[in-house]
């Protein structure tokens, strides 16, 4: 782990004390630096869970990634700084999709100050600080989050305003790494995968959360939500660069597919 290169990327000084305050600062800096994004899936570029490949993509090539990459990199950084880290396997929307969802999300548990904390920088940006591994609620504006026990599982929920919660279920057992490898391959190839169907880019900076789904750019803050429908490929490339710090000019080649998906989802728009 090249910590010097990682912290040069985030623009933060390398900390010397692995405590909870530092952990929260590390999470916030990581979220503000590395957007959650599936551009490679859309482009048909294979995604690897190999640690060196993840470091090269996110740090050296200044890209973002999805949970296997984001929490994969962040977990290694934390371990190198002296934190006690456990990779755990989760199932996004397991209560809707069922057991086939298990392994489609990587999160982290960190043992610190005599207790466990849920740490997740790979779920799009709703969790901005460590959560005690116990039932409870927290506010990470513009989101309300909760951790609770449901039928023998732990469930993390995020909610924006009065909308339905988005969640994942997990246990505190160490992750099944072979399952991660299979799910990573499936999610970038299966036609029913949401990452195959839609371009998704998200990033939290402070209490501002930007979400690009297809050609719709949403900005959420404690004051409310605004949206913009992108009009052409040039606007897509510009927003990726200016809003998310992603210099990916080849994304312009996705425009026709993005427009077709938008028309299918919003036929009356």
From TrEMBL:
Signal peptide region: none
EC numbers, comma separated: 2.3.1.118
Alphabetized GO MF terms: N-hydroxyarylamine O-acetyltransferase activity
A Pfam family hit: Acetyltransf_2
Sorted UniProt keywords: Acyltransferase, Transferase
Gene3D superfamilies (alphabetical): Arylamine N-acetyltransferase (3.30.2140.10), Cysteine proteinases (2.40.128.150)
UniProt family annotation: Belongs to the arylamine N-acetyltransferase family.
UniProt xrefs under PANTHER family: ARYLAMINE N-ACETYLTRANSFERASE 4-RELATED, N-HYDROXYARYLAMINE O-ACETYLTRANSFERASE
Name of the molecule in the record: N-hydroxyarylamine O-acetyltransferase
């Amino acid at each position: 782990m090249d910590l010097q290169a990682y912290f040069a990327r985030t623009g933060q000084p390398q900390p010397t004390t692995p405590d909870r305050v530092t952990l929260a600062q590390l999470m916030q800096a990581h979220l503000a630096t590395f957007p959650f994004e599936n551009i490679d899936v859309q482009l048909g570029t294979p995604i690897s869970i190999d640690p060196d490949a993840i470091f090269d993509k996110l740090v050296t090539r200044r890209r973002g990634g999805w949970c296997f990459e984001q929490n994969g990199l962040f977990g290694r950084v934390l371990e190198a700084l002296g934190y006690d880290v456990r990779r755990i396997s989760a199932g996004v929307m397991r209560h809707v999709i069922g057991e086939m969802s298990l392994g489609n999300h990587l999160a982290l548990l960190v043992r610190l100050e005599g207790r466990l904390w849920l740490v997740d920088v790979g779920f799009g940006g709703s969790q901005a600080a460590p959560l005690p591994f116990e039932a409870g609620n927290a506010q990470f504006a513009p989101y309300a989050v909760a951790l609770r026990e449901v039928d023998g599982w732990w469930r993390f929920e995020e909610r924006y305003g009065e909308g339905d919660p988005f969640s994942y279920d997990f246990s505190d057992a160490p992750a099944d790494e072979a399952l991660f490898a299979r799910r990573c391959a499936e999610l970038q190839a299966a036609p029913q995968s949401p990452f195959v169907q839609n371009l998704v880019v998200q990033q939290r900076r402070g209490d501002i959360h930007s979400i690009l789904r297809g050609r719709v750019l949403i900005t959420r803050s404690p004051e409310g939500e605004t949206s913009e429908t992108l009009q052409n490929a040039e606007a897509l490339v510009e927003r990726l660069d200016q809003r998310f710090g992603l210099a990916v000019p080849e994304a312009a080649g996705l425009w026709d597919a993005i427009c077709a998906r938008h028309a299918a989802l919003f036929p009356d728009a």
